[in-house]
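Hi all, a correction to my earlier message: I attached the wrong file for UvrABC system protein C. Here's the right sequence:
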Amino acid sequence: MADPATYRPAPGEIPTTPGVYRFRDDHGRVIYVGKAKNLRARLSSYFQDLAALHPRTQTMVTTASSVEWTVVGTEVEALALEYSWIKEYDPRFNVKYRDDKSYPYLAVTMGESVPRAQVMRGSKRVGTRYFGPFAHAWAIRETLDLLLRVFPIRTCSAGVYKRAQQSGRPCLLGYIDKCAAPCVERISKDAHRALADDFCAFMAGDTAKFMRRLRDEMSMAAQNLDYERAARLRDDIGALERAMEKNAVVLQDGTDADIFALTGDELEAAVQVFHVRGGRIRGQRGWVVEKVEDLTDAELVEHLLQQVYGTADEAAGGDAQAARDSGLVPREVLVPVLPAHLEQMTTWLSGLRGARVDIRVPQRGDKRELAATVLKNAEHALALHRTRRAGDLTNRSLALREIQEALDLDSAPLRIECYDISTTMGTHQAASMVVFEDGLARKSEYRTFGVKGPDGDGARDDTAAMYEVITRRFRRYLAERSDSSDIELETFGGEVDAETPATDRKRFAYPPNLVVVDGGPPQVAAAAKALADLGIDDVALCGLAKRLEEVWVPGEEYPVILQRSSEGLYLLQRVRDEAHRFAITAHRKKRGKGMTVSELDSVPGLGPARKGALLRHFGSLKRLRAASAEEIATVQGMGQRTAEAVVAALHPAGAPDATTPDTPEAPGAPDAAAQQDTVVADPVEHQDSEAVTHVPGTAEARG
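and the right structure:
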C-alpha cells in the first residue's frame, strides 16, 4: 500500500485549466482516468486526509504510485479524451458499462462498393450503418426476409458474390427475386447503392414515403389493367406492414429518442435503454455495472452517455458527416437524472449528430410512462443479475481464498497465468500462456509462444521448453517494467502531451500473482530455475499434475493435496485445461503451416500475394521454373531484383536443370509440378519461431 504523499505533485505544478488525468500503479498500469474543469482543484481533492475519502477512493490512491495529466482546450475535449482513454486502458477503478449480453444488429455495409445487409455483433465498423440492437438474431432475419421483397439488396458473403461473378449465374436469392443480383449486372452498382439507401431510410423510420409510393404504383397498375403487377405491389405493401408491426408505436408524434433508466444500490447499478425511432421501439439494450468508484447518479449517467454514444464517433472513424449519417445519436435523450456536466455533454452530442440534441428528464405524458416501463426492465435485469451472479461470485472468492491458504500466499492470487507445452514427437513445439483475473478468463491477455531451443530446432524436452518460455515471458516483463519506470520518471507528477505513446500497450509489463505450469516436479523445477535465474522472487509458482491432480510447489518433496470437491482445485483445473486447449490449438496451427511448403518460401521478399500471382500467371511451378527473370519480372507486383531471386531459388548452384527433363512428358500425363502446386496454391509465410504469434481474438505479442 503506497502513501499518496510520496507521489503528490506540488500544487503550483498543476494547472488550473481543463484536462484529463491518469493514476498509475507501481507497474505503470493505468488504474484510473478522470477529467476536470480545474485540474488543480480536482487533483488536490485526492491528496487530503485518507479518512475523509470514500473507501473506494482510498483504495485507488493507495494502489497508485504516480499521477499525470494532459491539458486540453475545452471541457468538451476533456470529455472525449476521457472516453478514449477509458476505452484504451480499461482502468480497474473506473466504472465501465458492459452489455449483459452480445446484442445483434442489422448492419448495412455502405462502405463497400456493393453494400450488403447482414446480422452483425461486436464492435462497430467504419462505413457501416447499424439498426437495432435486436433482442434476437432471428428477429433480424425475419424482418430482413420481409423487406427483401421491396428492397432486394445483396445479403450474400464475399465468397458467394465472387463465385456468382465468375460463373455468371446468381445465387438462389437472385432467382427468387430477393436479390437484385448486382453480381451478374442485372442492376448497376449505382442503382444497387440507391436501393440500399432506400432500405436504410426505411429502417431509420422514414416509412411513410415508401408506403405512399407503393400504393400509388399499385393504383396506377390497376388502372392500366396490369393486375399481376398490382398484386405483387399489394404483397409488397403487406410485407412492409408486417415488418412495421413488429415494432409497436409507443410515441405518436414520430419522436426519435433514446430513453434511459437507472436503478441500483451502493455496489451495483443496472441500466436499460429503449431506442425509439419514428415513434417505434427499434432496439433495447441493458448493462449491469459494479460501482468501483464513488459516483453520484448524475455522474453515472454522464459516464453512461459517454460510452453509449462514443461508439457513434468510432463507427464513423472520426468522420463527422459519417457520424451524423449513422443515426446512432437521436434528437432527444431522456434520462432519469441530468448528467453532471449537462452543457458540455449537450455540446458533444450535438457535434456528433450535427444538429441540436436535447438531454432532459421526462416529466409527463407518454414519454414519462415509457420511461417508467424502461425502469421496470432495469429493475428486473438487476434482480436477474444478482440471482445468477451470487453463486458465481461466492464460488470464485472461495476458490481464490482456498488457493491462497493451500499455497501459503500473502494475498489472494487475483491474476493467475498458466503455461503448457504442446508438441508431436518434438516437432512443431508450441507453448501457451492463459490468464485468469479474479477467477475469470481474460482472453485478450492470452499468448502463444513458438519454442525455438538453443539451435533453432526446438527444445530437447518439455522441461527445456518450459524453461525457455518462462524465461522469455519474464525477461520481457523485466525489460518493459524498466521502460515503464523510465517513462514514469519523466512524467512523474507532471504534465504529459495528449499524443504521448500509450505505455500500457506493453504486453508483459504486468506480472501475475501466481504462475501455474501444466505438469509435475520436473516442469515446476524448470519454471522455478527460470524465475531464479532472472532474479524474480515475488511471483508464486506451482504445478498441477494431471494423473492425481496434485499441486506441486518448488522445493517440496510432497505435493499439496486439495480436496476433490474444493473450489480452489476446480479453478486450477479450469486454468490448466484452458492452457492445454490453447496450446493444442497453437500446435495444430503451426503443424498445419509446416505441411504446406513450397520452394518459393525461401525467396526473400516473396509473400503470399506475390506467390499467388506467380502461380496464377504461369499455371504451375514447372512452368515458373522454366521462365526467365525477365518473364517473371512482367508479373504484376514483381520487380527485377525479386525475379532474379526467384530464379536463383528455383535453380540452385550445382542442381540439375529442371527445365530439360530426361524423359519426355507423355501427352495428357499429370504435371508433377502442377500437382505440387496444389499444396502451395494458398501459400503461407512461416513466422519466426521466436515470435509469440498472434491468435484471433487476442492482442499481438512478441517474445
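Sorry for the mix-up. The CA atoms of residues 246 and 490 lie 59 Å apart.
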